[in-house]
Specification:
Distance between the termini: 23 Å
Order of helices and strands: EEEEEEEEHHEEEEHHE
Number of helices: 4
Strand order of the largest sheet: 3-9-10-11-12-8-7-6
Number of domains: 1
Strand content: 25-35%
Structural class: alpha+beta
């Protein structure tokens, strides 16, 4: 799996290097008496399973299939990824053999993340990667309604060497034979601006029999965000200016909270691609035994 390592171009950020924790995901190390903001996330709402996508491209590889809605992407490449052990990869990359799809002709290009979907044997992942074990536990707790989908309870991406800095637009989704939770987020190794290069739609799901764990990472843009990750980039008039790094009293928590509120107030059709199209793709996933 690809290591998430986002370059830090500002010398002022040199002290904000990521501290990797195998048991709690990846949390940025920050100056003393400072903590990463707690995003405001509403309780998830449920969406029904669609009977079918009206039109699109059917992708099938081994025991996995899904339909890409028309206009979202033109196709997808598929790959049987061999197992990664502590002898062949970094601790966060350890995983059993799994399937990876990368969408081609995606509606957005030149974003930080590739549009991709992973289908991973859950039990093998749990037993080999402590980060994956915790993330799947968190997902299970939300799906069983043991806990709400709050910032402290959300699952994280086990193979990203970075931390989630906010979340918005939370919904639980069902797909064929399973369910999961989706939201919009951004990962970074420091207090980063929220922007249309790094923002993505994230889904984590689990089959009802707990056999397979599904992770989707799909770039998305929002009209109120800056076009790029430069902290000095122009923000649209209805956007939220980034506090910058020169002010020692910068309130990053308030910034991320305001971003989350703006994104939560945006209709699904206001994003590119529309969230409904991304949901339809996820809900069409079928994983056979």
């Amino acid at each position: 799996m690809k290591t998430f390592l986002k370059p830090v171009s500002l010398l002022a950020l040199s002290s904000l290097i990521l501290a990797c924790s195998l048991f709690t995901g990846f949390t940025p190390t920050i100056p003393e008496e400072t903590s990463l903001p707690t995003p405001v996330i509403p309780s998830p709402t449920e969406s029904p399973v669609p009977t079918s996508v009206q039109s699109g491209t059917v992708i099938s590889f081994n025991n996995v299939s899904f339909t890409i809605p028309s206009g979202l992407a033109s196709g997808a490449s598929s790959e049987a990824v061999p197992a990664v052990t502590d002898q062949s990869g970094a601790p966060w990359e350890i995983a059993p053999a799994h399937i990876k799809f990368v969408l081609s002709g995606y509606a957005l290009q030149d974003k930080f993340h590739q549009p991709q979907i992973y289908v991973i044997p859950a039990q093998g992942y749990i037993s080999s990667n402590p980060g994956a074990s915790e993330s799947i536990d968190r997902l299970n707790a939300i799906l069983r309604t043991v806990v709400p989908a709050t910032p402290d309870n959300l699952p994280f991406i086990p193979f990203f060497n970075a931390g989630q800095i906010f979340a918005a637009q939370i919904e639980t989704l069902q797909f064929h034979g399973g369910s999961g939770v989706r939201f919009l987020t951004e990962y970074a190794q420091y207090f980063a601006s929220v922007n249309n290069v790094d923002l993505f739609y994230h889904f984590q799901g689990l089959m009802d029999d707990s056999e397979y764990y599904i992770v989707a990472i799909l770039p998305v843009t929002a009209p109120m965000l800056a076009d790029n990750e430069d902290p000095n980039a122009v923000v649209p008039p209805d956007g939220v200016p980034f506090p910058g790094y020169d002010d020692p009293n910068a309130d990053y928590a308030a910034y991320y909270d305001a971003i989350a509120q703006k994104l939560n107030a945006t209709a699904a059709a206001g994003f590119t691609p529309p969230l409904d199209a991304l949901d339809a793709l996820i809900q069409s996933i079928t994983v056979n035994p």
